[in-house]
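So, can you check these C-alpha cells?
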Amino acid sequence: MFSQRRRRQLVALLALAACVSAIGQDPRASETQYIAREWLKLTDAGDARAAWRASGKKFQGEMTAEQWTQALPAQRAPYGALIQRTFRGAEFRSDFPNQPPGEYAVLRFRTAFANRSIAIETVSLERESDGLWRVVGYSLQ
C-alpha cells in the first residue's frame, strides 16, 4: 500500500502529466475533429444533400448536390452500417495539392463498418474566408 505522502506525489505527478498533455495539443485538432464528425454523421445517415450543404466551397465546386447524392451511396453502401469510428490524428498545413496556399487540415479516422472491419476515412478541411473550417474532401479506403 502507498503511504499518504506517496499517494499525494502520485496524484501531483498525474495532474502534471495531464496539464502537459493538454498544453501540447493543438486547439485546431479539437475544432476540426468536431466539424469532421458532425459532417460524417450526415454521411452515416445517408443525408448527402445536408452533407453537401455543410461542405466548403471547394467541395461544392467539384460536384453538384445531385452528383454527391449519387456518389455517396455508391461509395458507402458496400461498407454497410457504421460500427465504430476512432480519431487517428490531424495534420495541419498551409499548402494542399493543386490548391492555393491557405489553412488546411487532414484528419484520419480508423473506422469499422458492418461489411469491413477496418477502413481509413480521410476528411480534409479548409478554413474559409469567414474563418470557419469546412469539409473540402473525403476519401474512404
Q: What stands out?
A: Strands lie at 82-93, 104-113, 116-127, 133-140.
